[in-house]
């Protein structure tokens, strides 16, 4: 990197002075978010363990937050541990109060903050439950104090609920947006704001289910993460139900499902009366929120989002993604079948997913590379360089790849890859692939050079005798199955 | 594709006979899941609109379900619309009852199904609320009837709650697993099973928030999808709170947060008493569920999952993903700054995310292609082939790319790309890129050939005068900035 380039990145970071009072999970999360977005932070926490705890949160944040973006974050700000609240908030633009949820304690901390910070500073409390009016008791500059309630992990999750004076909230919104967060203005103050009220409702219901031996924590979590949790990561509850209601609309959905609310399903039965007025209100707000999409459009947006989320989880082999990976193994079997065909080695057979396309409305060039990488993986398994072989410390790395893009490819297209071994020579293995549409028309060609490696030493080495023999056998059978490339 | 290959794919599909009674959103979803997994389906629905409705669900399913997998699904089964329940269930292995939520109606449908289907068939109700014992009333073969409660969209979401006779449930589990679904055995029958009890709790709380003018449907949805919805798509509620509780563990978490449950936060206040017994039960179940991971491991799993989910949403430019894309634009600015450097054209500067790595524990070869594709995008914007230009119907397509892999790259690595224009000749544009680590060591090189295209005709054409001029200017400045490749 040239220094001039570093400099232009630095100017991106708004050099705001942040102060954090209390270095627990939430305080540490704020510290990490501020620092990694390029700002300087002063923190006060009397706990001698605070530096260690903050450091642990920071190390998690450093390995994850930058990975959300396609471009580098500004250079990290500097962190100072100070010995008092007054030292921390002196000259600050923003103060995050993150002390335990005890109103008396919060009052004394707020008084200390206000008597030492600039009049222009925004003072925020991370409280999950208290209202700004409670936090402001005894203050002679109450408008300065607002609630900015973040969600764990603060360095990754975008949501911050803002409650309090509108002028201060508007300034806080701009600040949080510049940190990559999503500020949500809670317009009327209420105990526990919005999200925690919803969370408490589920938490209570969950405790009842465990208490009554209906389900375990694992079963409840599975009921969430293999089902509606996937929906809520993208549309929340009302937009999801709008789609479920179909063309008949939201009012119809409520009319249909409303009565269930009065059935004796849960322990907690105080239900708002479903007057026409309330139904119209919900339906009207839903129109305002999503009315610019037809139900069919919303269905497809929902489906594409769900696919992208689940495909993301596939890369981590977790939850719904682990389930999909397991299922994929069965689908892959026909391609691994030694008797699949006498004329060509089919190494990939799949549909192009929507998350592989780019602004030109076709499959991104890099995803052709993915298809050919997957094709090579099938060859690997066929020649015995499989999971067990890799676990034994041996594998193949690609060292050269040349792709010729012949035709465009769109989301939903069925494609397959025919592969052959064009060279097998000791550590070296050359593969030639043709990616075709269902009619056999060639869409792209690739030449790959792979080298056999020792995974421990990360250096090239000879393959096992068995792998060499299987490569030679396969090369004999499929050496000329795909058309000559170049 | 050769026909022998088709055949081996077909054998994968279990040729189970499915019958669906009722073709609404849920019935249609079952039909789609069965058909696309290769099975034959008979459906009965007296509504003359049923074929149209089913066809709409099917068309959504066809464009989405196959995209979840890296391999082709088996050939689609065949769908028959029949004129009676008896015709539908004759010879069936599995019957899905999807009629409206009226117990009387369900009783008469169940009786009709049972008198015509094989004794060995599994009869499932998709009911959201009724218990198997209610559905079985009046049946002389009650064990045959179970609840199999799926979630919309049935063709994508994995969860199915199974309630009823354990032998029948076990057979149903195997069947659903073979359809790519996640069967969850609800061990004790209860109104609304597990997930809908949690959903009802949130729905009620949401209606109160709207009724009391605290929040709109949009605000509630945002509070979910920018916050805990992202958490719940991967770990659910209890595992998430276990991580939040930190090293002190789940019992500590409950002890700390339990009292809040009794605060006057919500309209619904019946809370299970937090006896030591209940706390131990929850903590013990949580140990059982997640105790094989340390908290630090769980934090990192959670973070990697959240990143993968949000990066998935980036590809759809939706919700948290849209927010990240907006933020990325600001981060990209330094690279688009015309005065960024006099010596080299830096086109990419980023961190490698965890979802870009593969089984060799390094960045997958195709992601090098992604980095170089992004590098080309930066050049495009610099020469004026930007968003507006693309909207005007002109763009560049990559037609050839040659990558040399020199060094491995791991998740978390900081990299940059230095690019130059190696050829600018009418429609043709050649770019040469070097991907380097922070110390300037070259990790990979790429030669890309791009051709200017008319996006309407999808054919090559000449670029605009302005773009040509800017390319030439850039070529003069940076023509030799990266080392000569090959």
From TrEMBL, chains A, B:
Q: Which residues form the 3-hydroxyacyl-CoA dehydrogenase C-terminal domain?
A: 194-258
Name the EC number(s): 1.1.1.108
Annotated binding of NAD(+), by residue:
22-27
Concerning Gene3D superfamilies, the annotation shows:
Hotdog Thioesterase, N-(1-d-carboxylethyl)-l-norvaline Dehydrogenase, domain 2, NAD(P)-binding Rossmann-like Domain
Q: Provide one Gene Ontology biological process annotation.
A: fatty acid metabolic process
Task: Quote the catalytic activity from the record.
Answer: carnitine + NAD(+) = 3-dehydrocarnitine + NADH + H(+)
| InterPro entries xrefs | 3-OHacyl-CoA_DH_NAD-bd, 3HC_DH_C, 6-PGluconate_DH-like_C_sf, 6PGD_dom2, HotDog_dom_sf, L-carnitine_dehydrogenase, NAD(P)-bd_dom_sf
**Protein localization:** Cytoplasm
Q: Which GO terms describe its molecular function?
A: carnitine 3-dehydrogenase activity; NAD+ binding
Q: In which pathway does it act?
A: Amine and polyamine metabolism; carnitine metabolism
The UniProt keyword set, sorted, is: Cytoplasm, Membrane, NAD, Oxidoreductase, Transmembrane, Transmembrane helix
Q: Where is the 3-hydroxyacyl-CoA dehydrogenase NAD binding domain?
A: 18-188
Q: Give any Gene Ontology cellular component.
A: cytoplasm
Transmembrane region(s): 16-36
Its biological purpose: Catalyzes the NAD(+)-dependent oxidation of L-carnitine to 3-dehydrocarnitine.
Similarity annotation: Belongs to the 3-hydroxyacyl-CoA dehydrogenase family. L-carnitine dehydrogenase subfamily.
Query: HAMAP family of this UniProt entry?
Result: L_carnitine_dehydrog
Q: Self-association or partners: how does it assemble?
A: Homodimer.
* Name this protein carries in UniProt: L-carnitine dehydrogenase
**Organism classification:** Bacteria, Pseudomonadati, Pseudomonadota, Gammaproteobacteria, Cellvibrionales
């Amino acid at each position: 990197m040239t220094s001039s380039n570093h400099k232009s990145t630095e100017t991106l970071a708004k050099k705001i002075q942040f102060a954090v009072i209390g270095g627990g999970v939430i305080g540490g999360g704020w510290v990490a978010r501020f620092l990694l977005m390029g700002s300087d932070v002063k923190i006060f926490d009397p706990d001698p363990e605070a530096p260690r705890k903050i450091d642990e949160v920071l190390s998690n944040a450093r390995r994850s937050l930058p990975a959300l973006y396609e471009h580098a974050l500004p250079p990290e700000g500097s962190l100072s541990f100070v010995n008092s609240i007054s030292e921390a908030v002196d000259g600050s633009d923003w103060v995050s109060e993150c002390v335990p949820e005890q109103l008396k304690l919060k009052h004394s901390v707020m008084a200390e903050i206000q008597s030492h910070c600039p009049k222009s500073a925004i003072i925020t409390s991370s409280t999950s439950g208290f209202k700004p009016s409670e936090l402001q008791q005894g203050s002679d500059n109450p408008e300065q104090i607002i609630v900015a309630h973040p969600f764990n992990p603060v360095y990754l999750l975008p949501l911050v609920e803002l409650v309090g004076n509108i002028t201060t909230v508007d300034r806080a919104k701009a600040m949080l947006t510049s940190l990559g967060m999503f500020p949500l203005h809670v317009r009327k103050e209420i105990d526990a704001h919005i999200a925690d009220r919803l969370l408490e409702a589920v938490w209570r219901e969950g405790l009842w289910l465990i208490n009554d031996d209906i389900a375990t924590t694992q079963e409840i979590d599975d009921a969430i993460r293999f089902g509606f949790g996937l929906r809520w990561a993208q549309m929340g509850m009302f937009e999801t139900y709008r789609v479920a209601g179909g063309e008949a609309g939201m009012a119809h959905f409520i009319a249909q499902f409303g009565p269930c609310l009065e059935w004796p399903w849960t322990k907690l039965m105080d239900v708002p009366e479903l007057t026409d007025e309330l139904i119209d209100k919900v339906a009207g707000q839903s129109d305002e929120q999503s009315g610019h999409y037809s139900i069919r459009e919303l269905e497809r947006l929902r489906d594409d989002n769900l696919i992208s989320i689940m495909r993301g989880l596939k890369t981590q082999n977790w939850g719904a993604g682990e389930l999909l990976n397991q299922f994929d193994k069965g689908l892959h079997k026909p391609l691994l079948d030694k008797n699949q065909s006498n004329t060509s080695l089919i190494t990939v057979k799949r549909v192009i997913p929507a998350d592989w396309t780019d602004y030109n409305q076709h499959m991104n060039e890099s995803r052709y590379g993915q298809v050919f990488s997957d094709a090579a993986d099938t060859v690997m398994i066929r020649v015995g360089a499989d999971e067990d072989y890799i676990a034994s410390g041996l594998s193949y790395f690609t060292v050269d790849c040349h792709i010729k893009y012949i035709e465009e490819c769109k989301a939903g297209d069925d494609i397959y890859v025919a592969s052959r071994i064009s060279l097998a020579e000791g550590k070296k293995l050359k593969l030639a692939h043709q990616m075709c549409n269902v009619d056999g028309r060639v869409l792209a060609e690739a030449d790959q050079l792979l080298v056999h490696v020792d995974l421990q030493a990360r250096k090239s080495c000879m393959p096992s005798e068995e792998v060499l023999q299987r490569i030679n056998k396969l090369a004999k059978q499929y050496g000329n199955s795909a058309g000559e490339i170049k």
